[in-house]
């Protein structure tokens, strides 16, 4: 998958196509593949999260540090494009 700039695509259709409104509507109806604002909000939530170490699934895991756990969560957020399911997913 690759991300595109929908606004620039709409501008191009307005210049180059006979029926730009139809193309504009089609582009606007497409779902968001990557929501940068949601990704940033989730990463900031992860940064500001207070962790109860007694609830940490890795508390007795010698191979997973807190930093590694947070990096794993951050990677999941970025990969999801802000589309993580449910509240409290981080």
Query: What kind of sheet is the major sheet?
Result: none
Terminal-residue CA separation: 24 Å
Question: How many strands appear in the DSSP assignment?
Answer: 0
**Taking all residues together, what is the mean pLDDT?**
81
Structural class: mainly alpha
Amount of beta strand: under 5%
Helix content: 40-55%
Please provide a brief summary of the model.
The chain has 90 residues and is mainly alpha-helical. It contains four helices and no strands.
Task: Describe the structure in your own words.
With 90 residues, the chain is mostly helical. The chain has four helices and no strands. It has helices at residues 6-16, 20-29, 36-48, 66-80. Helix 1 packs antiparallel against helix 2. The model is unreliable at 86-90 (pLDDT under 50).
How would the blueprint of this fold be written?
Layout: H1 6-16, H2 20-29, H3 36-48, H4 66-80
Task: Name the descriptors.
90 residues; mainly alpha; 2 domains; 4 helices; 54% helix; rod-shaped; disordered C terminus
């Amino acid at each position: 998958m690759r991300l595109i700039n929908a606004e620039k695509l709409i501008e191009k259709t307005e210049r180059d196509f006979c029926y730009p409104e139809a193309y504009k509507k089609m582009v606007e109806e497409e779902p968001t593949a990557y929501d940068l604002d949601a990704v940033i909000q989730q990463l900031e939530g992860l940064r500001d999260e207070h962790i109860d170490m007694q609830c940490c699934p890795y508390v007795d895991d010698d191979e997973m540090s807190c930093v590694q756990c947070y990096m794993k969560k951050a990677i999941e957020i970025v990969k999801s494009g802000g589309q993580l399911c449910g509240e409290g997913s981080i």
